[in-house]
Design brief:
The complex is a heterodimer of chains A (about 400) and B (about 190).
Chain A: E1 7-12, H1 19-26, H2 29-32, E2 36-41, H3 45-53, E3 59-63, H4 64-72, E4 81-86, E5 89-90, E6 92-97, H5 98-107, H6 109-113, H7 120-131, E7 138-141, H8 147-158, E8 168-171, H9 177-183, E9 188-192, H10 195-201, E10 205-210, H11 211-214, E11 221-226, H12 227-232, H13 234-252, H14 257-265, H15 274-282, E12 295-296, H16 307-319, H17 329-334, H18 338-348, E13 367-369, E14 376-378, H19 394-399
Parallel strand pairs in A: 1-2, 1-3, 7-8, 7-9
Antiparallel strand pairs in A: 3-11, 4-11, 5-12, 6-9, 6-10, 13-14
Helix pairs in contact in A: 1-13, 5-7, 9-10, 10-15, 13-18, 14-15
Chain B: E1 2-6, H1 10-23, E2 27-31, H2 36-42, E3 46-50, H3 56-60, E4 73-75, H4 84-91, E5 93-98, H5 103-151, H6 155-169, H7 173-187
Parallel strand pairs in B: 1-2, 1-3
Antiparallel strand pairs in B: 3-5, 4-5
Helix pairs in contact in B: 1-5, 5-6, 5-7, 6-7
Classes of the chains: A alpha/beta (about 400), B alpha/beta (about 190).
């Protein structure tokens, strides 16, 4: 098996979940596959998308919904994409300023004492502000096609807050979230690690809800390439997937996480304070709730590109007006290619799921995935409102939301 | 036509703005960061943004027309000019326009911006090269000095020795000079 290409350029954004790429580089896992990988720290998701399409990057750390949107030609020129591997589960959170947290506590002390928090407390605050003729609260997410956008919207809507009318939603790059919260330009945000933890540690904000509290084990970032690149470089891609899979397994081991925090803190990777990275990787009081599954890289089949995740993203794009109701669910699902992950897992002797899709949100307790090369322990994966997404009938799922 | 240039690199922003002001009857402003409120007051027809600005993602979100944003903004990709999008990505520049603006006018703006970005890149790499040239000239001077002192040669003869070493080994003069300085250090017990 010869590699079609050995010099490979991969893009990433400064976030804790770039860990599999950073670990594969720093621990020589790419080199062990005969790959000379150059990691390129990118300033924006739009730049990642355009540089992939132009062939200036071979592959990249991507927002999972962005790969689907790019393939379907939503929000720009379309480029067919392939996702052979997911980089993590969970990792994002919703944070509000200390002033908003205090106001929520004053208006709904019981609601704020419960986990997970419901946005109904926020609804009461919004109603109060309206009576006092105060302007709308401003929340930021990182990109229109991001789990962060859908997570914040889902949670707001489930608590009776209309994300398009009751609050102002804007886009802010991850590394600027904390600064904008500090300056008062925004009242809250939904972003990936380590930025929520940093806001909490600096005493600027409070984490209201983790991704794991909203969707027990939900998707987040993926590794993506263009379909043309995947077709021209099958062995190179398989070698990349093996290296990333081994890196994800290393990054998920609790014994390695202190070392991982120190690695990611380096300026060429995330360049954030090590304490904030440790919080996202090891947990801590500032998370406000149990942080055991705050950020997952390997366990619960985390690397597997579930086609039901891709379909769920399209359901939310339709829900929030980014895609038409007759959008092609089969095309969205096909962006995710589990065959490469299975091949790479077999090369390494790791278990892999044998099914491509599963119902999402169907398990209120930990469970075992039997349809796999060896049974895999899975986490509880229910949504905060208990709804279940059946990938075979996405429109029925959409109709269950009052707002669609 | 009003053009807003967003570039965290102030020298390059000024270069682009100056190029645009000369090429088009346009009102041009530049800023290091995209500020939505400021942009709304200026009402640009075109936003030219450096690819290394993180504010690109904010511009991506302005495509949906809404109450606060009555003029939807799209990334400018001109299908009638093949290769333009690729060239823009390579030059490190992107343009966002108010939907419906005439492509030919935007293309002119983007082309000026691209040529200025490329010019800046050339100026910077020329500067790097000049610095490297200066450093290598200093290295050669020092190596000559060592030869003159240790072997009692005059300047011309010392230069001849270095040149012969470079020709025999097929390596640049500065590299041979750097080796000679390193070896002289080792022999004096300074290094190694």
């Amino acid at each position: 098996m010869t590699l079609e290409k050995t010099q490979v350029r991969l893009g990433f954004i400064a976030l804790s979940d770039c860990a599999p790429l950073a670990v594969a580089e720093a621990r020589g896992l790419f080199a062990a596959e005969g790959l000379e990988v150059t990691l390129s720290r990118e300033p924006s998701w739009a730049n990642v998308r355009d540089r992939l399409a132009a062939g200036l990057l071979d592959g990249a750390h991507m927002l999972a919904p962005m790969a689907v949107a790019q393939s379907l030609g939503l929000g720009g020129e379309g480029t067919p994409m392939r996702v052979p591997l997911a980089l993590n589960l969970n990792g994002s959170a919703i944070t509000v300023s200390r002033a908003v947290a205090a106001a929520l506590r004053a208006i709904d002390p019981d609601g704020m004492a419960r986990r997970p928090r419901s946005a109904s407390s926020l609804r009461r605050l919004i109603e109060q502000r309206r009576r006092h003729r105060a302007g709308p609260l401003t929340f930021a997410v990182v990109f229109p096609y991001s789990i962060h956008n859908y997570e914040l919207r889902y949670w707001l809507a489930a608590g009776g807050v209309d994300p398009d009318r009751d609050v102002r939603l804007i886009i802010v790059p991850p590394a600027r979230m904390v600064e904008k919260l500090s300056s008062g330009e925004i009242d809250g945000f939904c972003v990936g690690a380590p930025w929520n933890g940093l806001a909490a540690q600096r005493g600027l904000g409070e984490i209201l809800l983790h991704a794991a509290e909203w969707w027990g084990a939900g998707p987040d970032k993926v590794f993506g390439v263009t379909r043309a690149w995947a077709e021209a470089h099958p062995e190179t891609l398989r070698a990349l997937v093996r290296a990333l899979l081994r890196a994800a397994a290393w990054a998920d081991d609790a014994n390695n996480r202190p070392e991982l925090a120190a690695l990611l803190a380096r300026p060429e990777y995330v360049g954030a304070p090590e304490a904030a990275l440790r919080l996202s990787l090891l947990g801590g009081a500032e998370l406000g709730a149990d942080g055991a599954d705050y950020l997952v890289f390997h366990r619960y089949a985390a690397s597997f590109p579930w086609r039901s995740h891709a379909a769920w993203f399209l359901s939310q794009m339709i829900r929030w007006g980014q895609a038409p109701r007759d959008a092609d669910f089969a095309a969205a699902a096909e962006v995710y290619d589990p065959s490469l992950l299975r091949a790479a897992a077999a090369d390494l002797g790791l278990a892999a799921p044998l099914i491509d899709a599963k119902p999402e949100g169907a398990h209120a307790a930990p469970w075992r995935l039997a349809e796999a090369t060896a049974p895999i322990a899975m986490a509880a994966d229910s949504f905060v409102d208990g709804k279940v997404f059946d990938p075979a009938d996405p429109l029925a799922y959409l109709d269950a939301f009052a707002d669609t | 036509m009003r053009v807003l240039v967003i570039d965290p690199d102030p020298a390059r922003a000024a270069l682009v703005a100056e190029g645009l002001a000369g090429a088009e009857p346009a009102e041009v402003r530049h800023a290091a960061q995209f500020d939505e409120a400021e942009a709304r007051r200026f009402e640009p027809d075109v936003v030219v943004i450096a690819a290394d600005s993180p504010d690109r993602d904010t511009l991506e979100s302005l495509r949906e027309a809404s109450q606060g944003n009555p003029r939807p903004v799209v990334m400018f990709v001109d299908r009638s000019a093949p290769g333009l999008a690729q060239a823009a990505v390579e030059a490190g520049v992107a343009a966002y326009v108010v939907d419906g603006l005439s492509p030919s006018r935007v293309r002119g703006v983007l082309e000026v911006a691209m040529s200025r970005f490329n010019l800046m890149q050339r100026l910077r790499s020329d500067l790097e090269k000049a610095k490297a040239d200066l450093a290598s000239r200093k290295t050669v001077e020092r190596a000559k000095g060592i030869l003159m002192k240790e072997r009692g040669l005059d300047e011309e003869a010392a230069y001849g020795v270095l040149r012969k070493l470079a020709m025999d080994s097929g390596r640049p003069l500065a590299a041979v000079a750097a080796d000679l300085i390193a070896f002289a250090g080792v022999l004096k017990g300074n290094g190694g």
